[in-house]
Structures are given as structure tokens and as C-alpha cells.
Amino acid sequence: xxxxxxxxxxxxxxxxxxxxxxxxxxxxxxxxxxxxxxxxxxxxxxxxxxxxxxxxxxxxxxxxxxxxxxxxxxxxxxxxxxxxxxxxxxxxxxxxxxxxxxxxxxxxxxxxxxxxxxxxxxxxxxxxxxxxxxxxxxxxxxxxxxxxxxxxxxxxxxxxxxxxxxxxxxxxxxxxxxxxxxxxxxxxxxxxxxxxxxxxxxxxxxxxxxxxxxxxxxxxxxxxxxxxxxxxxxxxxxxxxxxxxxxxxxxxxxxxxxxxxxxxxxxxxxxxxxxxxxxxxxxxxxxxxxxxxxxxxxxxxxxxxxxxxxxxxxxxxxxxxxxxxxxxxxxxxxxxxxxxxxxxxxxxxxxxxxxxxxxxxxxxxxxxxxxxxxxxxxxxxxxxxxxxxxxxxxxxxxxxxxxxxxxxxxxxxxxxxxxxxxxxxxxxxxxxxxxxxxxxxxxxxxxxxxxxxxxxxxxxxxxxxxxxxxxxxxxxxxxxxxxxxxxxxxxxxxxxxxxxxxxxxxxxxxxxxxxxxxxxxxxxxxxxxxxxxxxxxxxxxxxxxxxxxxxxxxxxxxx
Length: 559
Hints:
Number of helices: 7
Low-confidence stretches: 5-17
Radius of gyration: 24 Å
Distance between the termini: 47 Å
Strand content: 25-35%
Structural class: mainly beta
Number of strands: 31
Helix content: 10-25%
């Protein structure tokens, strides 16, 4: 489904790729500030999931429990001979899977997920969102998922029940939802330490009886929020995307104090840039000395990266508001290193669906930003997925970005090279586990649709990674090794041979002229390629053409 009419599809091969842009105020007011695009996206997702329910795809009880399965020759074949349980993989083994039904959520429709580790015992727990509420699980020492309980939604289930977002503050899970009246539930995960897995507990967490909740934050215009953000160091949370957009806070940053989780108190809000879809808020340490030690929020605001100084919650400031080529729905992002905040990664959820900007070929794009100046961030480059699809939430841990990517499952990228090469050309994919075999045979290895994985959690010391999926349930996987990104080489494959074919008169000169323009920006439209390139550079055509261009000799240099 297309949400935006963008006019001409092809990008002109001029300018320098990576040039950030000012927000288009007219377009922004009509499409984003009005809520039009967000409403269309949510409606499209809901329609897709309802269709999956009708088709039976959401009936998670049909999916059996799965145990340890080694990734061999690119596949983890959990049930030999059954293509629905043959998972594409790289450097990642499957340890366990249980369905939403087995997690206490019969309707399924999985959403967010977060984890907590008990500092005394080292036990590892997961809270994972579903239609009816939040499943509470343990990952045992063998990597097996064990259901311990279920936390029903605070408000009665309804149209927006699928949307739950979960984050941790110390030993508490904070759960927000798009459900009106839901507010933010605050649940103490230490309650799980004494639960007998033979008798999972349905906790009292609704508006009728919330006695098992530690606290509840309800100071929201309609009681609904799109996401919850935590600054644990400074002991506060933020509700973002809290409708309606014409309220006092305009769906912006709504701060609440967590010093006493049993009594969260409103601290004010920042409505200046309107709706915030997601954010990361940190005490600033980095090259911009003016802001050292300040409380900074990086906001992902539909069509801009917006950076705030929120040190004074009653008088916070917008430091910058910047858009970029291909901005379609600025969704989420993460700083490369919270201890030295110089670079930031950003994902746009709808650019692949709109075939916009660098995502015009349908391959997901991650945008790299140099935030050395918080008042003037620079978009320095991109890197692209190896499969078609839609990218979603990503989190950076020790130089690796762990990204949930809907039908492509969990993808892991080595982003440690960005400080030395902020163009993104040295970033590579080092591991993945594809949890949605249904689209594996599609062109480009995937389909651009809202099926598969919404969220994952990769912070456990054990190395176990939890992947929540919309249709099936929860997976536990683990990386087997961390490969180094390969050095860039110019291997003479069919694509490069075609670009420098000596047998075709004038071909090299033609290729050099084309590449001279092509490499000035990122062009993703195959229609601008030479007529012979698509057949010679099959697969991810644009990426292969880019590699060939980099390997051509400079005009005038003998080959």
C-alpha cells in the first residue's frame, strides 16, 4: 500500500549523497503534523493483520514448540522436510520457540519486547507484548523459553490492542499501549523469581484490579501512548506519541518521575515539534562540549530527526530539527555509543513501501548521522539490507546493531567502522535469523509487508537473544561467532566485467561517465541504469552496480 504520492520516482544523479535537508513545512503540515500518514500506516497494518487472522496465519496454536537447531549451510531446519520450519540463518543457532498461545496470549499479534536480568541469580526474563497484554517468560540456562505469567492490559481490549511498547527501569517493566485508558503499567519483575512454572500466574493488572502492579502512570490526555522511553540514569520516563495531537503536549515528550515507581508523577512536557514516534534520552557525553552532562533526547518525529535539551523539564529546548533525502516515516534510532555520542543510526519504516529515496529498490536503508554538533547534525551515509523488506527497531551493543526487520527476522550489522568511515560503505551484515520462511522465495528474498518480527532483545549476558513475532510467537537464538567485515575487494564478477567489457567498443568510457554521476548520490531506481546492467548485475542490482563503479579505473588511467 502506498501512503504518499511523491511524483517522479527517479532521483537525478546530481548533488552529494548524505546532504541533510530542512523540514518541508508545507508537506509536513499536510501529511505528518496532521496525523494523516500515521493514521494511514496504522490502518494498513491493522487491515493486513486482520487479513492474516482470516487466513489462519494468526492462529499461533498451530505452531509447535521447537528446540535447539543448529544453523548449517545457511539454514536451521527445525522440522526436517517442512519448509515452514526451515529458517534462513547465518552465524546464529535456534535454541527454542514457543507460540503466543503457549505464552498465555491466544490471539497473538505480538509486538514489543524487553528483558531483565536478576543481578543476584543471573536469571534472565522477558516481557513481550501481545493483543491481550504482556507475556512474562524466563529463558533458562539451556536457552529454553518458560512461561511464568501474563499481565493483562490495563484497559479493555479493542481496536488498538496490538500496540504495546515495553521498556525497563531497573527491575520494573513499563508497558504503554495505544489503547485509550491504558496508561503506563509499572510491574516489578522480581515477582517472577518465586513463580512455579507449573502454575503460571495471571497477574492483577487491569483498571478493575491492579493490585499486582507497583504503579500506574495515567496522566495522559486519552490514557494512550505510542511508546515509552526511559532515562534510567536520571530516574524518569517519557511517554511519546500520546494522542490527541491537538492536546497541550501535542503528542510530544511527556515526562514522568520514576524516583518512586509506585507513585510516578508528571514532570511537564515538550510540545514544540509535535508528535514524537520514538526517542532515546541520555546524559550527553560527546564532542559537542557545550552540552556535556546535559540531558539530551534524540527524537524520531515522523519526518525529522529532532534533538532536544530536556535538562529543564519545564523549559526544554529544541536544538535542531533535520530531515533527509527519502524521509517517509522517521521511525526509530540509536546512538552508536552512549558514552561518546558522535554518531547515530536512524531507520525509516515506510521508505521501502513508498520506494522513496535510497529505498527505491525495496531494500531497507539505515541512515547514518554525525551528531558532533547537536545543533547541526549531518547525514553522512547509509547502509542497506541484503534482502527486500521493512526495517524496524534497532539497538546498538558493542559495535553491533541488532535490528528487527519484519519478514526478514533479526539482522545483525557490524557498525563499528562508522567512526572511521561514516559513509557506511564499510558496514556489513554479520548474522541473521529469518523467522518468516513464508516469503523466502520472493524476488529479493522478502516481501515488503508488515509480517514477521516487530522487536527483539539482545542485551542478555548469556548471549541469548529473544525475538518476538507478530504471528507465531517467541524465539530464542544465539550468535555462534562474530565475523569481521570482509575487506573491500574488486572481484571480476559478471557485473564488473560488463562495466569494463573490452569487447564492446566504448563500453569502459560509457561506464566511467555513468559511474561519475551515479556515485555522486545514492540512486536506487533501476530505470536510470545502462540497459545492459540489470541482466549482468542480477540480484541486488543497485548494490552490485555501486560495487562495480567503485572498482572501475579512473577515466584516463590505463587498465
